[in-house]
Amino acid sequence: MNKRIVTFGELLLRFSKPDHKRFTQGEQLFGNFGGSEANVAISLATLGDEVEYVTRLPKGQIGLAAKMMLRQYGLDVRHVLTDGERMGAYYFEGAAGFRNSSVTYDRAESAFYQIQPGMLDWHKILRDAAVFHTSGIAGALSENASAATFEALDVADEMGVMISFDINHRKNLWKYPGAAPVETLSRMLEYADIMFGDVIEFEFLMNHPKIPFPATTSDYQMDLDPYRRWFDDIHRRFPRCRKWLMGMRNQVDASHHLLTALLWSDGELYSTRIYDVQDMVDPMGVGDAFAAGLIHSVMAFPDDNQRCLDYSLAASTLKYSFPGDFNLATDEEITRLME
């Protein structure tokens, strides 16, 4: 069986303030790279998987620095384009106490924003690939980026590559003329064999009332029957997708989250424990760690859905302990926490 995984999306520069300061405070800004599909790729590479990351970067020193960083984490970057004019960025203001975090995007006219169909030879890129992973963010950035993503999905489908898709609905990104998030995300999901999302994204996409997750302790007992009905409805709408991972998080305060997940697979619903996460370091990339955990576990133990779910949640929980966007938890650490 082929083991190579290909991920596709925009790499960003993340800017943030130290010590939970607001952007109106102090003079220092810290920068690091991040971005959903790159986060997934680096997590998978850390777990020992063979991963290629595909994106479009700016020419010059910033693009070079980004490409060197990707190589540092063991990613195959042979098909990364470096002919754009600027790097997309986002500004992250961390949460503190009962103050929520905030994100401000600066992605318009970035190298990836301007990517177009035909720039990448997907038949060559996906040769011998086992999994192709992307997300709804690419569909939100620009009409051309959306078309380029559909081009990749078409080729992956044609070549019989397993397609992994993260809804990743970012309402502040859908700004180009004619942007239609529900329609575009639904069309992308029609390609998916594996899908990721949180409760809010499921609610948005399916126009279905959100099922509350009010846990404040790890011994909270969930009623699974409403979720079974919800997943059955989702499967009727998207019959190709065989595995749906839904993450649930209750934020008690800025440093205290309750985290769990459900996995629907071929008509069966699996649940797992609830992690009570306190004194966390950085919540960014927790959802991407979920996605990477499931992709890795589906390839490592494909016939054990419960283990896949347990592994994915443990991987996601460990992400809270790392600063920056990347989950650098090893397979040994994830397995030890899971067990």
Provide mean pLDDT, rounded. Answer: 94
Strand percentage, roughly? 15-25%
Radius of gyration (CA) equals 19 Å
Helix content: 25-40%
Uncertain residue segments: none
Structural topology:
Layout: E1 4-8, E2 12-16, E3 30-34, H1 36-46, E4 51-54, E5 56-58, H2 61-72, E6 81-84, E7 89-93, E8 102-106, H3 122-125, E9 129-135, H4 137-141, H5 143-158, E10 162-166, H6 181-189, E11 194-198, H7 199-206, H8 225-237, E12 243-253, E13 256-265, E14 268-271, E15 275-278, H9 286-300, H10 305-319, H11 331-338
Describe this structure in words.
The chain is of the alpha/beta class. Helices cover 34% and strands 24% of the residues. It has helices at residues 36-46, 61-72, 122-125, 137-141, 143-158, 181-189, 199-206, 225-237, 286-300, 305-319, 331-338, and strands at 4-8, 12-16, 30-34, 51-54, 56-58, 81-84, 89-93, 102-106, 129-135, 162-166, 194-198, 243-253, 256-265, 268-271, 275-278. Strand 7 (89-93) and strand 8 (102-106) form a beta hairpin. The strands form 3 sheets. Strands 1, 4, 9, 10, 11, 12, 13, 14 and 15 form a 9-stranded mixed β-sheet that branches. It has a 4-stranded mixed β-sheet with strand order 3-2-7-8. It is globular, with a radius of gyration of 19 Å. Helix 9 (286-300) runs antiparallel to helix 10. The longest helix is centred in the middle third of the chain and has 16 residues, at 143-158. It is built from 11 helices and 15 strands.
